[in-house]
């Protein structure tokens, strides 16, 4: 395996080639946010004030869901400080953008900026990384899931994308709340509770039927869109001891108009190289990365990435492979032989595999990764 480098190492090589303006915040991104906010308010008023055919409500739900997701993408950008720099304004605007997904800015910054970005694809420290076979052996629920046939599991995991972002954010709240300074803990709670108070109030104002179309269905759609991207961000890549975005991240490609609607969220490798840069400039970063490290960079159309996710298990084996422990089928990851147009596996004895991986100490797993 090629040497791994930190994101700072890459950033240092690319930065001199970029114009200075790319490192400045881009407040004009907020116009897009305002447009989505107006669409959401108009959608709520239409559902709330008019008696329409359920099919029309469903269409509005779809527009609301895509707007919720897009606001989340903007919220992500805002809370990286790439839209405005003033901390109070950044958090205020981030709270509005993440309001439909009910995530508070303080929790998000801790979970995403300070944990996921710093420890990307680290098996223990990345809150968004998927489990290793070693961890599976200790978790009953995961163990049970991996005893289901692959098709059932793949269908279940794709269906669960409609809930996963909301469930994961609740898990993150439970995991991180204790880590906040007691002085700040109250505001983290307030930032969680306020959006939910708003949504529950809306339930009483609109009544349950209209609320399902105005909030619940859009929330499921937004979860599916957001998770459609997030699940492809790192899950076909290996886990890495060194946080190397070219090894552990994937950029997906979508039609240009989708990139416009989603604030270039598809450029995930570029985002991990320059999280403090507005995503407006990621196409430029991509050009340089592809020039400088063409054999390290991973990109593919989002549809292909999702098909590859369907076909492969989500359990790491030796750090750079994926294993289906039920069948003993081992798949490669990106950069280690995974060919998305022809996904194949090799068979291992599952009991031996489990035993071997448990015997490997964590440092040894790291060594395996570095040596290969
Ligand atoms: Zn990421
Ligand atoms: Zn980020």
Automatic annotation (TrEMBL):
| Keywords recorded for this protein, A-Z | Membrane, Transmembrane, Transmembrane helix
Single GO BP term: lipid biosynthetic process
Q: Where is the Fatty acid desaturase domain?
A: 56-300
Matching entries from InterPro entries are given as: FA_desaturase_dom, Fatty_acid_desaturase
Per the record, its GO cellular-component terms are: membrane
Q: Which CDD domains match?
A: Delta6-FADS-like
GO MF annotations, alphabetized = oxidoreductase activity, acting on paired donors, with oxidation of a pair of donors resulting in the reduction of molecular oxygen to two molecules of water
Top-level lineage group: Bacteria
Q: Transmembrane stretches, by residue range?
A: 30-50, 56-76, 144-167, 188-205, 211-230
Name of the featured protein: Acyl-CoA desaturase
Instruction: Identify the taxonomic lineage of the organism of origin.
Output: Bacteria, Bacillati, Bacillota, Bacilli, Bacillales
